[in-house]
Amino acid sequence: MSARESAQNQPVPRDRLVVIGLNHDDRDLVVGVARGQWALAFDTGSIPIHVLSQHAHDTVVITSLQWVESVDAFATHLNVFDTWHGVILLPASATPEQQQWLVRRCPLAQVVITGQPGTIIALSSALVTVRHHVVASALAAKVGHVHSALVTRVLLAALSLHPEQSDVATLARAVHMHPRTLHRKLTRAHPPITPQRLLGWARLLHVAWYMRDPSRSVAQIAETLRWSAASNLLRLLQRYAGLTTNELRAEFDVDPVDRLITYMYAELELGES
Questions:
Q1: 2, 48, 52, 165: least CB-packed within 10 angstroms?
Q2: Element (H, E) at 232
Q3: Do 7 and 87 have their domain in common?
Q4: d(Cα 186, Cα 31) in Å, to the nearest integer?
Q5: 260 and 194 within one domain
Q6: Which domain holds residue 116?
């Protein structure tokens, strides 16, 4: 069997969505929104910590207030949201106090109110947001520490930015600097680099993450990551790494993320070519 055939026979990597304790209507809602985009895992009891620990970088948790009798009982199942991003469904009958309590208790979670006209859109948006955070965490773990503490800090912040807020002003706020200060410090680093360049690398690393799934087309990846056009993605990859998307995916035994990180490391060590 050839390398190409072997790769095509491998299971398609999907982000894992652990669905916990939903009632029938909420479960149907989640399945309808997540079908084809997630590897669904169902658990009808308590938080499956043993499952989550094996998938720390590709797991989103979704649970509901409806399946317990009180907020106090629900609170005992929320520890997982201290370290994992996720979605919590609340019934339309939830009080403002309950909503505010959840937002304070679970700052990593997206809270979605069910039973309303915009519930499907809200859940879809919440899953996109949470998946972005999960992927950013996974990429941050892969990137590790580069040659400069400042560059590492800025790059990790760039990875965490939502695609629609991936600009220098937002990046500067994320690292608590004025944009001019950020530009000055980075261009005085050794080797120098611009904030725009780090934002570009961060966006391409997200692209490489989704290229791990051979079933995703470039157009689908561009749409998921809010690129204005797939052609812009192709040009940036060519300009930064000298690669086409086919070339990035060509070595089936090499993770596209790891391959792109190698190119990024070379630039950060030697300077922009």
A1: 2
A2: helix 230-241
A3: yes
A4: 45
A5: yes
A6: 3-137
